[in-house]
Structure formats: C-alpha cells, structure tokens
Amino acid sequence: MRSALPQWEPAQLPACGSPDRWGWLQQLRNLPELDPEPWLLALENGSLSIAPDLLAVLAERLDPPAQLRLLRWWRQQPDPDPGLPSQVLRHRDGASAAWLQEQLAPGPVALGFALPLSALPQVVAAALLPLLGHQRQVAAWPVLLCWMRAPIATPLRRAALEGVARGLSVWPRSQLVAGLSALAGDLDPQLAAPAVDLLARLPGARRALVPLRRCGLDPRVAERLGRRLAATPAQPLLLVVHGRAGGQLPAELVALAAELECRRGAPVRLQALSAAAPAAVPAVASELLQPGQVLGLVPLLLLPGGHVRHDLPAIVRHWSAFARVQHWPFLGAWPRWQAALARELAGLAMQDARPLLLHHPLEGPLAARYLTTLERRTGAHCVATPYSAEHLAELKLTLAAPALAAPALPLALAANRLTDQLAEQVGPPLLQRPGLRQLLLAELEALP
Q1: Is residue 196 a contact partner of residue 162, using CB atoms and an 8 Å limit?
Q2: Is domain 335-440 in CATH 2.40.350, yes or no?
Q3: For residue range 259-271, what is the model confidence (pLDDT) as tens digits?
Q4: Quick one: residue 366, left, alpha or beta (phi over 0 = left, psi -120 to 50 = alpha)?
Q5: What is the 3-state secondary structure (H, E, C) of the chain?
Q6: Is the C-alpha dihedral spanning 75, 79, 82, 87 positive or negative?
Q7: Is pLDDT of 2 > 50?
C-alpha cells in the first residue's frame, strides 16, 4: 500500500476555490521552516500552477537564488503574470541585478535597432524596469534612461521612470537632472509631471527646478512646478561685493540685486567691502529673515585675494552672531562662471592671439595656483594690473599699440578704476556683458 504524502508537499495543496485552501496556506505560512525546493520543482515541471495566494506565502521564504530561479521560470511562460516579479524580487543582490540588466540592456525598439518586442514582450519589460531601478546599481542608469527617452508606448516609459524613482539617490546627479529636466518638457503630462516631482525630491531642488520656469511646459505641468517651487521658498541673500571708494555701489550691482530679488521672491541685499561694517545688524537681520530662515551669503568676488581669505571669514562670523548663515565659495571659483568667462573670451579672441585677463595683483601660492587653473580653463593669459594712475596710463598706451593684437578683458565684475581708465581698450566690466550677466542671474536665482 502506498504511504501517505507529507502534509506540506505541493500535492497536498487544496484546489483553488476549496474552503480548506485559506486555512491550509495560513498554516503553511506559519511553519518555522519551509523548503522551497519541492514547490519550485512543481512549478517548473508543470504539476503546480502559481496563484496569488500561494505566491504571497512562497515569496516570503525565497532567498536570492530561489527568487532568481522563480523569475527565470516566469520569464519562460507564454503568458507571464505581470504582478509576479514585484512580489518575488524582494532582495537586492548582484545575481538578480545582473539578470535584470541582461533582460533590458539591449533597449527598446528605436530607430530600427535593438531587441524586438516579440523577443521581450511589453508586459515583461513593464514588469522588470521598476525592479531594475530597485536594485540600485549605478550601471542600470543608462539602461533606464534609454527606455525612458525612447519613442515607445507610454506605459513602458513610465515603468522606466518608476525605476529611476526607486533608485533616485544612486544615479549620477548631473545626468539625472539633465534627463529629468528634458522629460519635464515631454508632450505627455503623465511623464512630465512625475519628472518634476522627482526633481523636487533632490537635495538643493531649486537649482534643478528654477530653469524649468523658462521652458515651454504643459500648463498642468507648469502649475505643478509652481507648487513644488512654493514648497521650497528661496532664502534671503546677502551679496558681498567689492564696491567703490567710500562704499559706493556701482549701478550694475544695484540693478542685479533688484532683478534677483524680483525673480527669487525673497530679499536680496548688497554689502560692499569698501564700506564700513553694516550698522544695526540685528535690525537688518530681522528685516531680511523670517523666524527659522537661513541667510545665504554669496561673495561676488572674482579672485582669492585678501578679501576672500581674511575679510570674508570675518563677515561670516559677524553675521553668524545674529542669524544662521549658509555661505558659498567666491564667484571666481564657480565652474559655471569660469566656463562662461571662457565663452566670453572666445568671442573676443583673434587668430593666433591669446586673449588677456587683466586682474588685480595677487600674492601667495594659493593665488598662483588659482591663476594657473583660470588660464587653463579659459585659454587666456592672466596679467597682473596695478590700479595706480601711472601703471594704468602706461598699460593704456601698450594696449592701444597696433603691434599688440591680443584682445583684453577686465577681470572686474562692476565698473572700477581699471574699466574707467581703459574703457576703449578693454570694454565694459563683466556685469555689463549680457551673457555673463544672465549666467550670474540664473545661478543666483537657483540657489536655495
């Protein structure tokens, strides 16, 4: 006589619809140990069909090799259940990540290339794309980006976007911002709106969100962008500038602060290094700041001279006694400013003539390293230019000589003695040049 089968083998599972099935599966779930091998074998040989209630019990007992084995079985089914992978793939492990990458890396149908959908059904791709992001492997970023940007069905692109959302913190930041910013302008609001939401989740989200205001977004997406920006209000800014004798502020700096305040919807003030220390700092701080706000202190200084190395730390300490201060590096160190300066110089360059950058004299090894870096990044030759009347008069004659073909640019943000005396030879200061002014406005507008 044939012996009875063990109680918890697949053959003992009550059929779907049986009144005994729920209680049996509950007891199966509560077993202290469960060997998944008989269940996987039964699925693979076709003697057992998977059902949601059984899957809910088995998925809790699968280690990474077993979950990958079940996924491989699922992938071979003629009509795969789209809900199975998300229930099964609960662990992050290298083997599962590699298998997902293998399935999706060839990419969608695009430009007549890549894997045909007959080999990778849409239901499979839509189920696996979010899980690829869930594995949080940096190598998955180009795969998800390819699917997200491809001209394919919206459900597939949304699945790729969900994958991006699940691994948001691990993707290369600059590429992530560029990819999501492009998607925010998509014609499909179902893709554009979530892209805006994901940008809003990034640290320092204003830097990514503010440029979108100048893009032609769908009205509903633009409305969502407005809500996200309203949820991250701009903090007041204090712009530290050089100024002129007696603390006078050049008109271009005053105009910059006024336009920036309008754009940010938050107070913007100027502090000139050439002026006396601001009076009644507590009153100014209470005027600028709401309770709990942070004061952003931005040095609009172009060189690491004594002002940056000595005066600026003292200003930060001074304001820190009355407010929480977040201070930024001096403007001349910002990579985007240096790139914009290089573009401005390229527009001035003459054939076989290296442009000149005329700057205030600096001392010390830090200054020497900075000027070497600036020359490398801009392609210009930095020339120390004392502001004495004798030196400026001599330089004016030198730059006017026909034999000197090199164009010159003053390394001065606003009008000063150099630009006053050499206006015909070097042109206006940097803030009076539209490209540089717009770049600086955009960078300052995007600050927290």
Answers
A1: no
A2: no
A3: 999 888 889 999 8
A4: alpha
A5: CCCCCCCCCHHHCCCCCCCCHHHHHHHHHCCCCCCCHHHHHHHHCCCCCCCHHHHHHHHHHCCHHHHHHHHHHHHCCCCCCCCHHHHHCCCCCHHHHHHHHHHHCCCCCECCECCCCCCCCHHHHHHHHHHHHHCCCHHHHHHHHHHHHCCCCHHHHHHHHHHHHHCHHHCCHHHHHHHHHHHHCCCCHHHHHHHHHHHHCCCCHHHHHHHHHHCCCCHHHHHHHHHHHHCCCCCCEEEEECCCHHHCCCHHHHHHHHHHHHHHCCCEEEEECCCCCCCCHHHHHHHHCCCCCEEEEEECCCCCCHHHHHHHHHHHHHHHCCCEEEECCCHHHCHHHHHHHHHHHHHHCECCECCEEEECCCCCHHHHHHHHHHHHHHCCEEEECCCCHHHHHHHHHHHHCCCCCCCEEECCCCCCHHHHHCHHHHCCCHHHCHHHHHHHHHHHHCCC
A6: negative
A7: no
Which pTM was predicted? Answer: 0.74
Is residue 278 predicted with pLDDT exceeding 70?
Answer: no
Distance CA 191, CA 183 (A): 7
**Residues of each domain in the chain carrying CATH 3.40.50.1400:** 237-332
Per residue in 300-321, pLDDT (tens digit) is: 999 998 888 888 898 898 888 8
Read off the tokens for 154.
């919206």
Express each pLDDT in 134-170 by its tens digit.
999 999 999 999 999 998 888 999 999 999 999 999 9
Give one word for 3, left, alpha or beta, with left for phi > 0 and alpha for psi -120 to 50.
beta
Convert the pLDDT of each residue in 170-227 to its tens digit. Answer: 999 999 999 999 999 999 999 999 999 999 999 889 889 999 988 889 999 999 999 9
The CATH fold assigned to 237-332 is Rossmann fold (3.40.50)
Residue with tokens 């140990």: 33
Q: How confident is the model at residue 232 (pLDDT cuts 50, 70, 90)?
A: confident
Angle, CA of 137, 139 and 141, to the nearest 5°: 90
